[in-house]
Specification:
The complex is a heterodimer of chains A (473) and B (216).
Chain A (H helix, E strand, L loop, with lengths): L7 H9 L2 H23 L4 H17 L1 H14 L2 E6 L2 H14 L4 E4 L3 H6 L1 H7 L3 E4 L2 H9 L15 H12 L7 H18 L2 E4 L3 E3 L4 E6 L3 H7 L3 E7 L3 E2 L5 H12 L7 E6 L12 E7 L3 H6 L13 H5 L1 H6 L10 H12 L1 H9 L6 H5 L6 H14 L5 H14 L2 H18 L4 E2 L7 H4 L4 E2 L6 H8 L8
Parallel strand pairs in A: 1-10, 2-3, 2-4, 4-7, 5-8, 7-10
Antiparallel strand pairs in A: 5-6, 6-9, 11-12
Helix pairs in contact in A: 3-12, 5-7, 16-17, 16-19, 17-19
Chain B lengths: L6 H12 L21 H14 L3 E4 L7 H10 L4 E3 L5 H10 L6 E2 L2 H4 L7 E6 L2 E3 L4 E5 L14 E6 L4 E2 L2 H9 L5 E5 L4 E2 L7 E2 L6 E6 L2
Parallel strand pairs in B: 1-12, 2-3, 2-4, 4-7, 5-8, 7-12
Antiparallel strand pairs in B: 5-6, 6-9, 10-11
Classes of the chains: A alpha/beta (473), B alpha/beta (216).
The complex binds iron/sulfur cluster.
The site of iron/sulfur cluster has 14 residues of chain A, from α14.
């Protein structure tokens, strides 16, 4: 999808003033945070699993060429056709060609962040395929013509009333504000599609190198229906999804659902290997796997390699005070929240994505919950440093920051300035806050007040209290 | 169609990216210690606890007969009218046939259930494994088995014997790896969604009820 991350400030202002959105975000993130904490507390092996999952992911990335090569060989041996896509445009082209050559007119798609990343649905639609999103949340946002707003819960921003009005308007169903009835409508509507679709489209949670298997995790069961019933299965996955062995899967299945929704395991886990065997009564005859790079090999090269360990659980979103305030759409691209704040600048360009990396207090909550121990705050700081090094930061601000650092590390200058500030502050002050700062710092006060200098600097008070005069230290 | 995109190029791009950025990780630690062997009864008890806490229904008895009224009632209140079992699964066929008088039921073929206009159905099948750690049923397509009973039915009835219970997922993956089937389906409770207002709702796409029948 087209990134809009450079408009983060404008988009978050809009989100902050949307009362309905605010209510649904806080309800969702609150539920997820509580459920995660409870389920982690109930599972004593969680920390050990985190260590192991983190280690396996890192070691796999360190030898990704080897492991991905193995995955390709094993999957091909079992009947898969593997396609390598350098970027989103190539992935779209490949998917459209597959649909055309397989003669597909109707496809059922289960939730795939990578699918969103490259806008797979629109590519298939352009190729004349009707694409039905089969995950309930995705089905809702598809009807509404909106992008998903949360990795795990795409329609968190919609109330039941809004969903029902959509069903009335787009599907001609009667109005109901009962959630089970809404779910039943979607079940009935989608069942028809599952039974008649020529192709199922899915992402992959994990790719197992030693067997060429695809592991897919869902709660609703759409992932299973779409990958067992249709004749063709199209998988799109980022190259970083590989794990070395099928036997590594259990540790990740102990981490992912607990971190995502607080479940000990997701309702359905499918391990799919190759195509239908001759004796099988069902399963796809054709399996196409698109392996997407789209900037990932570039990330692998440098200091941001750890971000590719991400298993897309969404825990960092739910716990993040910024995400909790502005929701997913404000981030302006596929991946919101802390994970998005690192991935977006790396994948769409620093100039586009840097507002996300800057919109963080670095509180560290994301790193505390991340099941594969990605040091997200550290990576955000690196991005800010890159921004400065590449001259993308306002030079006046860099200069100001340098000056600030110089002043703060030299007590004498600071004291002199504090005395001056105490006087000057009366000029800028409004209700104890400085509503604007002079010169090039205005970016800081466009959206918030800068606290005014206290008439008596803290350092002076402190020294007084302890009976030490500043000048006879 | 022939594969498109250059796989070799992708792999060499990755190899180039990795060079000059050495792995800085400590040697791999020992895998989590395997748990002590657990007795079958303990395994079953732990399975039941996890399975029920995630919305599953658990029935056990010395034989099938005493369980039939309760099983029939559970299917009836879910609106089930058709029962089906996969060809070749004798145990499941026996359960389906003896269950017919215990509700408004008739036997149906899997093909009929696959129709858009299918009646509300119960899919009855012998499950291959039951994992105690998470309360998970395992159904695979090994040796040409069908996955339809646990996939498209309204109620999924899984027949288990004590030998099917394992402690952890690792064990059943190892057992199935010998002759890896196209599909392995791990099933834990009924199909659910939280996508509308984060309210847990049962019966999204898969079965609305999952019943384990444990027989000696
Ligand atoms: S960065 Fe960590 S916490 Fe965030 S989505 Fe990825 S794995 Fe989950």
């Amino acid at each position: 999808m087209e990134p809009l991350s450079r408009f983060f400030y404008r988009r978050s202002e809009k989100a902050l003033s949307d009362a309905t959105l605010q209510a649904s975000i806080s309800r969702t993130t609150g539920k997820f945070v509580g459920a995660r904490a409870d389920s982690v507390a109930a599972f004593p092996g969680f920390e050990a699993a985190r260590d192991e999952g983190s280690r396996i992911k890192r070691e796999t990335l360190d030898r990704l060429d080897h492991h991905l090569g193995r995955f390709i060989d094993e999957a091909e041996r079992r009947g898969a056709v593997i396609h390598a896509a350098r970027d989103g445009a190539e992935a779209r082209e490949i998917a459209a060609r597959i649909a055309k050559e397989e003669g597909v007119t109707l496809a059922v798609k289960s939730k795939s962040m990578v699918g969103e990343e490259v806008d797979l649905t629109s590519a298939l639609e352009a190729a004349g395929v009707e694409v039905v999103e089969s995950d309930l949340g995705e089905f809702i946002v598809q009807l509404a013509g909106e992008p998903p707003s949360h990795i795990i819960a795409p329609a968190v921003h919609k109330t039941r009333e809004q969903v029902s009005r959509l069903f009335v308007e787009k599907l001609g169903e009667p109005y109901t504000d009962k959630i089970p009835e809404l779910v039943a409508i979607a079940r009935r509507r989608l069942r028809e599609k599952f039974l008649s679709a020529g192709m199922g489209v899915s992402g992959a949670n994990f790719l197992c190198a030693d067997t060429g298997s695809i592991a897919l995790v869902t709660n609703e069961g759409n992932g299973r229906m779409g990958t067992i019933l249709p004749r063709v299965h199209l998988v799109i996955a980022g190259i970083e999804k590989v794990i070395p062995r099928l036997s590594d899967l259990p540790v990740f299945l102990r981490l992912l659902p607990r971190s995502a929704t607080g479940q000990p395991i997701s309702t359905y886990v499918s391990v799919l290997t190759g195509v239908k065997r001759p004796e099988d009564p069902e399963g796809p005859e054709k399996l196409h796997i698109i392996l997407l790079d789209n900037g990932r090999s570039g990330i692998l090269k440098g200091k941001y390699r750890d971000i590719l360990k991400c298993i897309r659980c969404g825990a960092c979103l739910n716990i993040c005070p910024v995400y909790q305030s502005v929701g997913g759409h404000a981030y302006g691209w596929t991946y919101p929240g802390p994970i998005g704040s690192v991935l977006t600048p790396l994948m769409t360009g620093l100039a586009e994505g840097i507002p996300l990396a800057n919109a963080s207090t670095l509180c560290g909550a994301c790193a505390d919950v991340c099941p594969v121990k990605i040091p997200i705050p550290g990576l955000l700081l690196e991005l800010r440093a890159d921004e400065r090094d590449r001259g993308l930061k306002d030079p006046a601000e860099v200069f100001g920051m340098k000056g600030y650092a110089a002043v703060m590390s030299r007590a004498g200058i600071l004291e002199a300035l504090e005395r001056i500030a105490g006087v000057i502050s009366s000029v800028f002050l409004k209700e104890g806050k400085a509503p604007w700062l002079p010169f090039r710092f205005s970016g800081w006060t466009d959206r918030r007040d800068f606290p005014a200098p206290a008439p008596q600097p803290f350092r002076k008070l402190w020294k007084k209290q302890r009976g030490i005069r500043p000048w006879n230290r | 169609m022939e594969p498109v995109g250059r796989k070799e190029e992708l792999l060499s791009r990755i190899a180039v990216a990795l060079r000059g950025h050495e792995a800085n990780n400590p040697a791999s630690g020992a895998a989590a210690g395997s748990e002590a062997a657990q007795s079958v009864t303990d395994r079953i008890a732990r399975f039941r606890n996890m399975f029920e806490s995630q919305g599953g229904n658990f029935l056990a008895g010395p034989s099938l007969d005493p369980l039939l009224p309760e099983l029939g009632e559970a299917l009836r209140i879910s609106g089930v009218t058709a029962l089906f079992s996969p060809p070749g699964d004798e145990r499941a066929r026996l359960v389906a046939e003896t269950l017919v008088p215990f509700g408004p039921f008739r036997l149906a073929s899997p093909g009929e259930i696959r129709m858009v206009s299918a009646p509300a159905s119960a899919g009855i099948q012998t499950a291959e494994f039951a994992i105690a750690e998470t309360g998970t049923l395992v159904q695979s397509g090994q040796k040409g088995k069908t996955l339809l009973p646990g996939l498209i039915s309204d109620v999924h009835v899984a027949i288990l014997s004590p030998a099917a219970f394992v402690d952890r997922m690792e064990e059943c993956l190892a057992a199935l790896s010998e002759d890896l089937p196209r599909t392995i389906s791990f099933i834990t409770g009924p199909s659910r969604t939280g996508d509308i207002e984060q309210t847990l709702t049962i019966g999204a796409h898969g079965p609305k009820k999952v019943i384990v029948v444990l027989l000696p």
